[in-house]
Specification:
The complex is a heterodimer of chains A (413) and B (196). Chain A is mainly alpha-helical and 413 residues long. In chain A, 64% of the residues lie in helices and 0% in strands. Chain B has 196 residues and is of the alpha+beta class. Chain B folds into two domains: 43 residues; 134 residues, no CATH class. Chain B contains five helices and six strands. Chains A and B meet through α1, α5, α6 and α18 of A and α2 and β4 of B.
Chain lengths: 413, 196
């Protein structure tokens, strides 16, 4: 079953990498909303009398580009050190020390941005939006942990990710989660990844960043809702080890699948094990399984039956998903600002809404004839709005299908 | 029964069996995929970082910049293009709609924080300077200046304050799509005098 998972994941990965699904054109909003340029109602004076010299506005520079490369080097070093500590030194204390450093560097010093988890969205957007050029550092942040995972397992999660570090530090009274609940909750991460890819690809929003629970702590400011969300995660994290990582993290999903393939990994040496089973209880994440007599002790008949059943179920699940997506796409497309605006304009034009919003007022200010051409785009002018961006409808089905396959393969394997 | 179906152990098959072969080939495929992704993405990427900036010609001064920034004091502030300014005695960016008097007294001012400093230059011209430590980026003065004046006041993301979040909260709330990513080496979209 794991094989099946590998194959599906590889196919999905290649599909995404090759960008086979057609690219979504960028919404032409900004070009349409050209407000009037400044009008020279009062000609600027010459100041011959006082000899006044015009000051020029200051333009403080953003963070130097060189620091971005420093971040990339620190990431590489931290990943290397983490891998060494996990696989060679096998010291929990050293790993915790490194994660505290990561928490301070990537978390509080870098303000948690850009992180590898959010980088997924930049990568997806760069594939689907031809105009968006992803910064090189974001590519590094996305790819380096993946490569390290392929060799050494999820050492990124162990000691480099600041989100993991902050959850590790608050874990005081670990409680075991029943395995059925654990595997059930895990599915949410797949759906979250699928949604994040969808929203990023259509240019609607970067939902991973928007609902990042710990970013407010790193910045020491932020909206109240996110602060409360982060507080809840930390509170739950006192009893349940790393709730975000295990049940929500979309990057963790990718790493989880890749780590199945990793060349070197932490393992319990069978010859040294006395089967006291103390480690099972002490692992707060439920990652240590019951010792078995022999590896691989698998029931092949059972596995085969399971695979057959899954293959039979696949068309039904695909249909169910296609139905779910086509039902939800109408609602979900409203998250795209262009669609929301077009919807609003439509309501106002047909007289269903009297008042204007900021967005529609800004739109009306640009001129009526533009609005007509805007509304005449066939996909939007229908009363039931569909995603504005060209071929995105097919894409939605496709990506949901892919995420579904990932769920199936990942959890049944 | 189960014993028969067991795959041969590693030592029985000269160090290779189907399981290991499959595993290694998928591992290799994944590594190649990552390499391909790296090549593809670095071809698409640019070494320059990008930062958020407001296009002043698209901005509608809705006031979201003052409230939606993740910073307590917004990274967006008002900037003055002095070369476009008319140095008016009665500035519509400085004075409220119906000022009691044409003086710098607080009750006459439009700016909620009194961030605009008005000083006499020569008759009848007055200079208006933004005190950035007081400005909160609400854009009230920008609206006044754009509507009745030359439009020399405009909002900009100040990069000494901006955290350059991957998902800018103000950009998500911007009703006119004025927020865009610009290359970090040219981080401002300043209003300039249009030369004939």
């Amino acid at each position: 079953m794991i094989r099946f998972g590998y194959i599906i994941i590889s196919i999905a990965f290649f599909l995404i990498v090759c960008g086979i699904t057609s690219s979504v054109p960028a919404a032409p909003m900004s070009r349409q909303l050209q407000a009037q340029a400044g009008v020279e109602r009062f000609p600027p004076p010459d100041f011959v009398e006082s000899g006044y010299e015009l000051p020029s506005p200051t333009t403080p520079h953003p963070r130097q580009n060189i620091y971005e490369y420093v971040d990339a080097v620190v990431l590489l070093a931290a990943l290397g050190l983490a891998s060494y500590l996990v696989l060679k030194k096998r010291s929990r204390r050293a790993i915790l020390t490194l994660s505290v450093f990561s928490l301070f560097y990537f978390g509080f010093w870098r303000k948690g941005c850009v992180c590898s988890i959010g980088a997924i969205q930049n990568i997806v957007l760069s594939i689907f939006d031809r105009d968006y050029a992803v910064p090189f550092v974001v590519v590094v942040f996305f790819l380096l942990p993946l490569v390290f995972t392929l060799f050494f397992g999820r050492t990124f999660c162990a000691a480099v990710c600041p989100l993991g570090a902050v959850q590790d530090l608050v874990l005081l009274r670990p409680v075991a989660v029943p395995s059925w609940l654990e595997s059930g909750l895990r599915l949410f991460a797949y759906a979250y990844l699928g949604a994040a890819v969808l929203f990023a690809a259509t240019g609607s929003a970067f939902i991973i960043c928007r609902y990042d629970p710990f970013i407010s702590f790193f910045r020491l400011s932020g909206s109240l809702n996110i602060l409360v969300l982060g507080g809840c995660f930390l509170l739950v994290g006192v009893f349940i080890g790393r709730p975000y990582c295990r049940f929500f993290c979309p990057y963790g999903v990718i790493l989880r699948q890749l780590s199945r393939l990793s060349k070197w990994r932490v393992s319990i040496t069978p010859d040294d094990c006395i089967k006291c089973r103390l480690c099972e209880d002490s692992c707060p994440f439920g990652a240590i399984k019951v010792p078995t007599a022999e590896w691989p002790a698998r029931d092949y008949d059972k596995s085969k039956k399971r695979l057959a059943l899954l293959l039979l179920l696949l068309p039904i699940l695909i249909l169910a998903c296609a139905w779910a997506v086509s039902t939800a796409s109408d609602l979900m497309s409203r998250t795209h600002p262009t669609v929301r605006l077009a919807d609003r304009i439509h309501l106002e034009e047909t007289g269903k809404e009297e008042e204007t919003t900021d967005a529609s007022a800004a739109f009306w200010a640009t001129g009526k004839e533009m609005s007509e051409s805007f509304m005449q785009r066939p996909r939007i002018s229908r009363p039931q709005l569909k995603p504005a961006a060209g071929s995105s409808e097919d894409f939605w089905d496709w990506s949901l299908l892919l995420s579904l396959l990932a769920i199936l393969s990942g959890e049944q394997g | 029964m189960a014993e028969n179906k067991r795959e041969p152990a590693l030592h029985e098959t000269n160090g290779i069996n189907r399981r290991h072969f499959l595993r290694d080939s998928i591992w290799g495929a994944c590594l190649a995929g990552l390499g391909g992704a790296a090549a593809f993405l670095s071809a698409k990427s640019r070494s320059q970082d990008t930062v958020w900036q407001i296009d002043p010609y698209v901005c509608v001064q809705c006031g979201n910049c003052a409230t939606y920034c993740v910073l307590e004091e917004s990274a967006v502030k008002c900037v003055h293009a002095y070369a476009m300014c008319g140095y008016c005695k009665i500035c519509f960016g400085f004075f409220g709609p119906e000022p009691f008097d044409i003086t710098e007294a607080a009750e006459n001012q439009l700016c909620p924080t009194g961030a605009i400093k008005r000083t006499f230059v020569e008759d009848p011209y007055y200079e208006y300077i933004i005190d950035e430590s007081l400005c909160m980026g609400c854009g009230k003065c920008v609206k006044g200046c754009n509507t009745f004046g030359n439009g020399s006041l405009f909002l900009q993301v100040r990069h000494d304050r901006c955290l350059n979040c991957n998902e800018c909260s103000i950009a998500a709330a911007c009703p006119s799509g004025a927020f865009k990513r610009v290359p970090a080496d040219r981080p401002y979209l300043l209003k300039m005098v249009e030369h004939a």
